[in-house]
Amino acid sequence: MRIGDLVIATGASARSLRYYEQQGLLASERSPGGQRVYPESAAERVALIRSLLAAGLSSSTIQDVLPCITEKAIRTPWLAERLRSELNRVEDQISSLHRTRDILADLVEHYAV
Amino acid sequence: MRIGDLVIATGASARSLRYYEQQGLLASERSPGGQRVYPESAAERVALIRSLLAAGLSSSTIQDVLPCITEKAIRTPWLAERLRSELNRVEDQISSLHRTRDILADLVEHYAV
DNA sequence: TTAAAACCTGACATTGACGTCAGGGGCAAG
DNA sequence: CTTGCCCCTGACGTCAATGTCAGGTTTTAA
Do B90 and A97 contact (CB within 8 A), yes or no? Predict the structure, then answer.
């Protein structure tokens, strides 16, 4: 598939897809004319990238972490620690969001017009 | 309390506190010399502001929503709708984060070095 | 074969919540 | 009263992901 197809498949903009590639998060083959060609699996990978970005991981962190999600790659102790700390961050973020949601939900329920 | 005290009480930087004021999120009295003076309740308000910011609400949205959390203020249907849509956003964000957490947790558990 | 549609690179612009610096006052202790 | 610390405003810098534009090339369909 070409980049336009991947745009449709993922909802990400072409700009974003090129950016992910530039950051080393997403690989592509090239057509003889130099246009990007993606395998089908790219859509899933983009979804994964976006969910990690949405969870607040930086692209350089994702770059470290991705190969060990998709393949069973180089697991150094350093990377394991990195993973644990990101997991902790995300869990803190979740519980903080829960509290905020409760505030909003309370407002919506009890003070409805 | 002066701004430095509020910095200590909340963990927010002085820059942030002034920014919140500029955005209409945080009020202050002024000393005769023009320095900001806050009531004790300011610390709690700052915590609320920060949790809403962390949940992805923009400061202009927070500006709309805050008066109706702290006082029982002007509840228009428009504002009620706004609240509901922010609540939905936060809930979507939470479930998305849950999935991402599971991915990371799975990695940490099953592929430990 | 040719026009339209899709794609390329490169570069500058944007957004939001701050950091940071400069230059200048306020305020309590000694 | 002066020293040292805290505070003020204003302005420019930052960062990350993405928008956007220009000028040119490739691919596709007629």
Answer: yes
